[in-house]
Amino acid sequence: MENKILIFGHKNPDTDSICSSLVLEILNKKSGKNNVEARRLGNVNKETQYVLDYLGISAPELLESVAEGQEVCLVDHNEFNQSVEGIEKAKILSVTDHHRIANFETSEPLYYTAKPYGCTSTILFEEFKMLGHEIEKKEAILMASSIISDTLLLKSPTTTDYDKKALEELGKIAEIDIEKYGLEMLKAGTDLGDFSEEELVNLDAKSLDKDGHKFVIAQVNTVSIEDVLKRQEKLESAINAEIERNNLELFVLAITDILNSNSEIIALGAKADVVEKAFGVKLENNTAFLEGVVSRKKQILPNIDKNM
Ligand code: MG
Ligand code: MG
Ligand code: MG
Questions:
Q1: Which end of the chain is more exposed for a tag (fewer CB within 10 A), N or C?
Q2: Which ligand lies nearest to the CA atom of residue 11 in the structure?
Q3: Which sign, positive or negative, has the C-alpha torsion 41, 46, 52, 58?
Q4: Residue 68 to residue 20: CA distance in whole angstroms
Q5: CA dist 14 to 109, 182, 204, 243, Å?
């Protein structure tokens, strides 16, 4: 077992999962708790890499599993099926999250901070304030990047006034032009060229479970849906392989146009018709266009979950 308290976000980590882990480590250290370390549960995506390169820092170390009794702090997730292997037997000291609470249970009391904000880093921003710690440039950029990523530059319907206020203040501390920096960061994440189809469908995939019905909602950001759909046939093979391997009843890949705020979905699996009911659309060639839909958390998942 590791001596340190490990801080990490969800599998297939996004910018919020990586940056909020790093920020919570900083926050703990500023509070005099030095025995903490940020970790990651998978590869860093290109958007997050842009942030790390911008700051000239390296990614947290990879964590593959935890031993029984390992002390951990979760950020940006709570569901065990999105967490590290062995989480059921770990000692969860805290959760800082902005998602629904599901598939989660502990045997001991814990700190649990859940707010329905657009981003985990917005919650951490408020913790800095509450604890009276100064926010320095590095953590300002980490938190701003998380907020930009999760809210798609405040355009996602998940965006709250708290996110707007935090991002504005963080932009000032970081001395960056949020629009310019944010667009470059988001665009860095849409460079999908050198990913295989198998990697693409797993890049930002969330495993979900509704009363034993297993399904996955994956998402890729793009500036051209058309470009991604050129790979539809191979993407479908990769999705079908995932369905087979993990006994899924549904796999939805949302291809999200970050400039126009729409998504095209590819839906496969025995329960693919669930998405037709969920969004009142007809699947054609396994795809459907969802106008104005960009948020998995607020728009895609709840509608599918209801109909599973
Ligand atoms: Mg996340
Ligand atoms: Mg998040
Ligand atoms: Mg996301």
A1: N
A2: 1
A3: positive
A4: 24
A5: 28, 15, 7, 22
**Residues ≥6 apart with Cβ < 8 Å to 227:** none
Distance 149 CA to ligand 1 centre (A): 9
Please tell me the predicted confidence (pLDDT) of residue 122. 98
Strand partners, 217: 206, 252
Domains of the chain (ranges, CATH numbers): 5-187 (3.90.1640.10), 197-305 (3.10.310.20)
110-131: pLDDT as tens digits:
999 999 999 999 999 999 999 9
Tokens for 193, please give them: 């060229």
pLDDT range class, residue 193, cuts 50, 70, 90: confident
Ligand 3 center from residue 3 Cα (angstroms): 31
CA of 149 to the centre of ligand 3 (A): 7
| Percentage, residues of the chain above pLDDT 90 | 98
- Residues whose CB is under 5 A from ligand 2 (ion)? 16, 76, 120, 150
What the block records as the tokens of 220 is 């890729």
The secondary element (H helix, E strand) that includes residue 264 is: strand 262-268
CA distance linking residue 117 with residue 20, whole number of Å: 14
Provide φ and ψ at 275, rounded to 5°: -70, -25
Q: What are the tokens at 246?
A: 């993990």
| Pairing, β 205-210 against β 213-222 | antiparallel
- Say what the pLDDT of residue 255 is: 98
